[in-house]
């Protein structure tokens, strides 16, 4: 698939110049549409062709006609969702007046920079090009900043995400057999698995880039302390959220659009976000679900700002704590839709979680999930670690912002890294799951 990346790189490099030299705005707009269509066609063919075929055949079967199964033998290129989005934003920004990169070598580096190519974060070429133009010389400070990030990211993945995957994968195979409390454990476990898996990858990517003297964007900022759904999405997968806002939400809603138009644009944007995550209907529903959550959040925020009723309560710490709690529960409900691909099963599980059906489950083995003998001994430790992380998230982040950890003596920092590596070697699970976002 390297030929695909090379071909798209060559096309977008020269097409960016064509748009830049395209003359008047109407002509540039037509050239932009051609460029966007070429990029999105590649993404649609490799990622969504079989999904489209299956959906058409499924609709055909619903009206009473039988059709043979048909599937194209397509291999999904690693990272296509990420580098296509970077190409799209490059062309759009040139159309908006930015200058294209003159050097083909630097443009190819922008597209194929290995730390971010497979699973992001999504770079902005204006920021990255400035770093590419700087003279790079090896510095020991690159190691001082990069290696701790790599070790911490690996610890998030190996210690927490992979151990939680044991619980999640085991429950997902017989998900309807569990009771409502156990299903909430499943939702929490998967929410934290995704967070530590993806933020761990991002830390490794940022650390790898720092070894070469490059700084790439932060992608997570304590999302689970968010007090609203809009705040959560400003903290979660931040580069994707910013991309969707700048290149989809704002163009659809307009800069001065009505509240209704903005709500519709939000639903469209988040549904597209869901489809971007994967060629399956559960991802489409997942995106639409969060679109609804964001619309409800925006209407509630406007109502709260325009009413004096309960104003004291809305400004209190109790309301903030309640908001954080409810936001996290809503996120975990969405995590179930994300993990379970069968749509019917998703609704059945969510119905039970929301106490709209009996609390009990058949619980195939007759044991509660945390008492299963096949679980690794580290799983309860992981749950305690997560609780400790939640409790210490804010003070640790404040210390980090103040540069406290960077000022610690080198032997102390080195000892901490060695300890982390030792713990990973001891508690690594027997099976290792790939990074979740590699599939996108």
The Rg value, from CA coordinates, equals 24 Å
Measured by DSSP, the beta-strand proportion falls in under 5%
Report the structural category. mainly alpha
Uncertain regions spanning at least 5 consecutive residues: none
Alpha-carbon distance between the termini?
15 Å
Estimated helix fraction: over 70%
Averaged pLDDT: 83
Order of helices and strands: HHHHHHHHHHHHHHHHH
Instruction: Supply the number of structural domains.
Output: 2
How would you describe what is shown here?
- The protein is mostly helical and 440 residues long.
- The chain has 2 domains: 132 residues, no CATH class; 295 residues, no CATH class.
- The protein is built from 17 helices and no strands.
- The longest helix is centred in the N-terminal third of the chain and has 38 residues.
- It starts with a helix and ends in a 13-residue tail after the last helix.
List keywords for this structure.
440 residues; 70% helix; single chain; mainly alpha; 2 domains
């Amino acid at each position: 698939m390297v030929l695909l990346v090379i071909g798209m790189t060559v096309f977008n490099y020269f097409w960016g110049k064509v748009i830049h030299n395209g003359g008047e705005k109407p002509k540039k707009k037509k050239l932009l549409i051609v460029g966007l269509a070429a990029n999105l066609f590649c993404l649609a063919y490799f990622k969504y062709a079989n999904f489209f075929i299956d959906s058409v055949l499924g609709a055909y079967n619903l009206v009473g006609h039988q059709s043979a199964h048909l599937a194209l033998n397509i291999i999904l290129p690693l990272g296509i969702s990420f580098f296509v989005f970077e190409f799209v934003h490059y062309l759009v920004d040139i159309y908006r007046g930015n200058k294209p990169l003159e050097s083909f070598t630097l443009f190819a580096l922008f597209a194929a920079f290995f730390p971010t190519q497979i699973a992001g974060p999504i770079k902005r070429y204006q920021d990255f090009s400035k770093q590419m133009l700087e003279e790079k010389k090896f510095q020991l400070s690159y190691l001082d900043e990069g290696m701790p990030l790599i070790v911490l990211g690996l610890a998030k993945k190996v210690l927490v995400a992979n151990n939680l995957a044991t619980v999640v994968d085991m429950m997902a195979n017989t998900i309807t057999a569990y009771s409502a409390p156990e299903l909430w454990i499943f939702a929490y476990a998967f929410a934290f698995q995704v967070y530590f898996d993806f933020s761990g990858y991002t830390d490794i990517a940022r650390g790898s880039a720092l070894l070469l003297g490059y700084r790439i964007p932060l992608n997570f900022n304590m999302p689970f302390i968010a007090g609203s759904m809009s705040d959560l999405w400003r903290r979660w997968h931040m580069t994707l959220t910013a991309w969707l806002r700048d290149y989809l939400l704002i163009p659809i809603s307009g800069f001065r659009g009505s509240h209704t138009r903005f709500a519709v644009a939000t639903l469209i944007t988040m549904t597209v976000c869901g489809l971007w995550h994967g060629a399956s209907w559960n991802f489409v529903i997942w995106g639409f679900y969060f679109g609804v959550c964001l619309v409800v959040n925006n209407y509630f925020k406007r109502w709260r700002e325009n009413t004096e009723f309960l104003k004291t309560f809305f400004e209190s710490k109790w309301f903030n704590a309640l908001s954080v709690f409810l936001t996290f529960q809503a996120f975990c409900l969405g995590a179930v839709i994300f993990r379970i691909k069968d749509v019917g099963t998703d609704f059945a599980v969510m119905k039970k979680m929301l106490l709209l059906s009996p609390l009990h489950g058949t619980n195939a083995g007759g044991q509660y999930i945390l008492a299963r003998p096949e679980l690794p001994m580290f799983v309860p430790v992981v749950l305690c670690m997560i609780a400790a992380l939640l409790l210490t998230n804010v003070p640790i982040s404040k210390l980090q912002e103040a540069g406290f950890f960077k000022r610690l003596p080198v032997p102390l920092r080195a000892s901490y890294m060695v300890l982390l590596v030792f713990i990973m070697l001891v508690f690594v699970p027997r099976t290792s799951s790939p990074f979740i976002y590699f599939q996108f």
